[in-house]
Amino acid sequence: MARGDAPRDSYHLVGISFFILGLGTLLPWNFFITAIPYFQARLAGAGNSTARILSTNHTGPEDAFNFNNWVTLLSQLPLLLFTLLNSFLYQCVPETVRILGSLLAILLLFALTAALVKVDMSPGPFFSITMASVCFINSFSAVLQGSLFGQLGTMPSTYSTLFLSGQGLAGIFAALAMLLSMASGVDAETSALGYFITPCVGILMSIVCYLSLPHLKFARYYLANKSSQAQAQELETKAELLQSDLADSAVPCVGLHSHPVRLPRHHSHGDQLHQSWEVESVLQPHLLLPPLQHHGLAGTEPDLLLPVDEDSRLLPLLVCLRFLFVPLFMLCHVPQRSRLPILFPQDAYFITFMLLFAVSNGYLVSLTMCLAPRQVLPHEREVAGALMTFFLALGLSCGASLSFLFKALL
Q1: What's domain 10-251+267-409's architecture?
Q2: What is the band of 28 on the pLDDT scale with cuts at 50, 70, 90?
Q3: Structural domain boundaries of the chain?
Q4: If residue 394 lies in a helix (H) or strand (E), which one and from where to where?
Q5: Which residues contact 310 (CB under 8 A, 6 or more apart)?
Q6: What confidence category does residue 76 fall into, taking pLDDT thresholds of 50, 70 and 90?
Q7: Under DSSP, is residue 184 helix (H, G, I), strand (E, B) or coil?
Q8: DSSP characters over 34-103
């Protein structure tokens, strides 16, 4: 929530910057996974000369590498590990170093991916280099996303929504770039090279946006001198919570109201582990499932969130219902299956399921990431945002690990 004395976000520059940062954090990875036909062609021994380098989905020798399964697993495990490390050690490395360093590292790694388009290489070494790139790209992405979500935890929740919207647009942008690349009419090698250079431009834009934040008064107000602002934010929060308690005195509440107020203090590096566990204990009911109910300040959340936010039983029910997508996708038309039948042969079924899957994922993840930092005290919101990113990565890693089992069941 924006404080009453906060400066205005002139021309929405801060919001636009975080939107582009969200786009930049996932743009490289979305371009990577959208180009799976290219990697499969290389692993099948097609080389750079094939005219189908981006447009053909091979179903032959590349199965020996289990490329899709390995790329999923080796992307999510580093994401989980480094998100965990960032959650507990986020103050050991300066924030600017973590964010700018990660952006530059991802830029160099994706430039390497683009350069490999011009290099003839046998499938084995190409597979090894690609898997190493996957690990490193997602390691730096974990640090980048955790650090940015930590920053967003100190800002109004609207900016978390803008950041997540940018991440959602990354997938659409990558798919459109793939279609344009296939329809460009140029030779396959040039098409692939241009395709992989495009996200490098997106990362450069993200770097420019991040460097511009210290020059924007609205961003400085929330992001600079966090420790000196914590006391004022704490007193304001206590006063507003008191008003909320008086207004809702007939309704028993849990969450932030049920925890004693802790005055902000300066933490040494040795105190960070203790603080992280302290915040985790507050968020524990909300980590494995999205927050059951938001007990922040009345009237500060968009109306779109209220139907779920006000009903403590609806949100976990919606989360559990999403497990139904697993059998639905497995019963769609998937090639190379020997056990399960195909109950949904038309592509329209798959498109419908994927649309519902994507919309529900975006809505529930946005709701969780926006509301979770409001469950803790203001000076703890940065570490709360980092912890929520870790548990998001934990869920993705579990899904990646189970992908081998699901493929075997087909």
Answers
A1: Up-down Bundle (1.20)
A2: confident
A3: 10-251+267-409
A4: helix 381-409
A5: 293
A6: confident
A7: coil
A8: HTHHHHHHHHTT--S--TTTTT----SGGGGGTHHHHHHHHHHHHHHHHHHHHHHHTTTS-HHHHHHHHH
